[in-house]
């Protein structure tokens, strides 16, 4: 392997292993910021050693073993200061003796342990915004820039939130736990938001060479299922699970053999996972039974259910989808929700009605660098026969896109618009 290939491999391994390392170390050390620091040290060690020695056969196990050794060294240095550390040292040493293969520990109850880590990061002592940003940084390994894009916030603002949240966690000695009762209710909304954002990053990656990050979707779904067991009477927990199940049911149809995106209206619906759709619809029904039918996640699940229930694109109930987006907008004032409503109105009433909405959204500061705004506008312009404007809009969208696959798709759409070839949205 060349140095560049090894570095690329290290970063790919890191994307998968980072949450596992932080989760395992947090469970053992009861100190989330320290666990993240040790995880970062393991990455630095890999960057130093793997280019010369080669990538290990089990890179995750290598990273975990190194991180645990660093944890033991850290505790030994402080062992005279606290009896608790002596106890944790023995626990670490006993675990290492009991599990000679560190790789065996990597998948140990990962869904529940990831969820516990999120609950810790979502402590009420932290602001709502800081909770989600910190959890996304630790669990997803997202960059500060990627988190800023998810929240439509300036990058320095997000960076400050993360620094303050880490300091609060470090100084307060908060317990690494899955809370119960009233404490669980205090944190649940933030935890649902984090799981939702993790799934979204897996479903459509903000950056990188691949459009999908399946492991993040898998982890989010697993945590969503655990959440419905931890909080079985919370309608929105079931609503979020329904939303993720229904969206994930389309995974096999969302990319072609080369990994390029396939737009919703062009997908082969025979590839949609009918079993997963049934699971999603059952979760949606349960959310409604529990009174969560008008919740943020449940309304989105109802929208996706309209697509899942349509055998062909022509059978999609676009007026209902537009109405559901309008209802969603009464809960959360978001220009992205309004943009999605415009798409539905374009399908239900025609592109001219939708374009009027999209043009009003052009002045929204939060959408200044949001690539889907010019992308939607390009599609509407193309349907109206305004080909040159459509091409310019797709080119502008491509320049803003930070995911390679999505950028290439928008470039193709710009070229097709120039050729006058119709393209469904």
UniProtKB/TrEMBL annotation:
Segments forming domain RNA polymerase sigma factor 70 region 4 type: 118-169
Gene Ontology MF annotations: DNA binding; sigma factor activity
Boundaries of every RNA polymerase sigma-70 region domain copy: 17-79
Domain DUF6596: 187-287
Domain of life: Bacteria
Matches recorded under SUPFAM superfamilies: Sigma2 domain of RNA polymerase sigma factors, Sigma3 and sigma4 domains of RNA polymerase sigma factors
Protein name as catalogued: RNA polymerase sigma factor
Gene3D superfamilies found in the cross-reference section: 1.10.1740.10, Winged helix-like DNA-binding domain superfamily/Winged helix DNA-binding domain
Swiss-Prot/TrEMBL GO biological process terms: DNA-templated transcription initiation
């Amino acid at each position: 392997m060349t140095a560049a290939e090894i570095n690329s491999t290290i970063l790919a391994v890191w994307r998968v292993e980072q949450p596992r390392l932080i989760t395992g170390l947090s469970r053992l050390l009861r100190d989330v910021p320290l666990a993240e620091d040790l995880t970062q040290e393991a990455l630095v060690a890999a960057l130093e050693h793997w280019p010369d020695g080669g990538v290990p056969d089990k890179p995750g196990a290598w990273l975990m073993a190194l991180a645990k050794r660093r944890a033991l060294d850290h505790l030994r240095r402080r062992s005279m200061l606290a009896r608790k550390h002596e106890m944790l040292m023995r626990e670490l040493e006993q675990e290492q003796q009991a599990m000679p293969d560190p790789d065996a520990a990597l998948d140990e109850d990962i869904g529940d342990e990831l969820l516990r880590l999120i609950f810790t990061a979502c402590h009420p002592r932290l602001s709502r915004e800081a909770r989600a940003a910190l959890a996304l940084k630790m669990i997803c390994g997202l960059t500060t820039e990627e988190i800023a894009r998810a929240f439509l916030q300036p990058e320095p603002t997000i960076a400050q939130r993360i620094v303050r949240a880490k300091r609060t966690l470090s100084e307060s000695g908060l317990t690494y736990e899955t809370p119960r009762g009233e404490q669980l209710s205090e944190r649940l909304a933030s935890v649902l938001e984090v799981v939702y954002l993790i799934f979204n990053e897996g479903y459509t990656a903000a950056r990188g060479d691949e459009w999908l990050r399946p492991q993040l979707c898998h982890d989010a779904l697993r945590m969503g299922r655990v959440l419905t067991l931890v909080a079985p009477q919370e309608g929105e927990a079931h609503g979020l699970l329904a939303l993720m199940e229904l969206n994930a049911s389309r995974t096999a149809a969302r990319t072609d053999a080369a990994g390029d995106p396939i737009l919703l209206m062009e997908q082969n619906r025979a590839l949609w996972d009918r079993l997963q759709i049934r699971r999603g619809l059952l979760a949606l029904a349960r959310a409604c039974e529990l009174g969560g039918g008008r919740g943020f996640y449940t309304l989105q699940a109802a929208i996706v259910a309209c697509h899942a229930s349509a055998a062909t694109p022509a059978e999609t109930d676009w007026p209902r989808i537009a109405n559901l987006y309008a209802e969603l907008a009464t809960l959360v004032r978001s220009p992205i929700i309004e943009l999605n409503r415009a798409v539905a109105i374009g399908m239900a009433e025609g592109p001219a009605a939708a374009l009027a909405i999209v043009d009003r959204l052009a002045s929204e500061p939060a959408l200044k660098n949001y690539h889907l705004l010019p992308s939607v506008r390009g599609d509407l312009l193309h349907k109206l026969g305004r080909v040159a404007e459509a091409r310019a809009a797709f080119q502008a969208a491509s320049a803003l896109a930070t995911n390679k696959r999505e950028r290439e798709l928008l470039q193709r759409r710009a070229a097709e618009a120039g050729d006058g070839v119709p393209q469904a949205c």
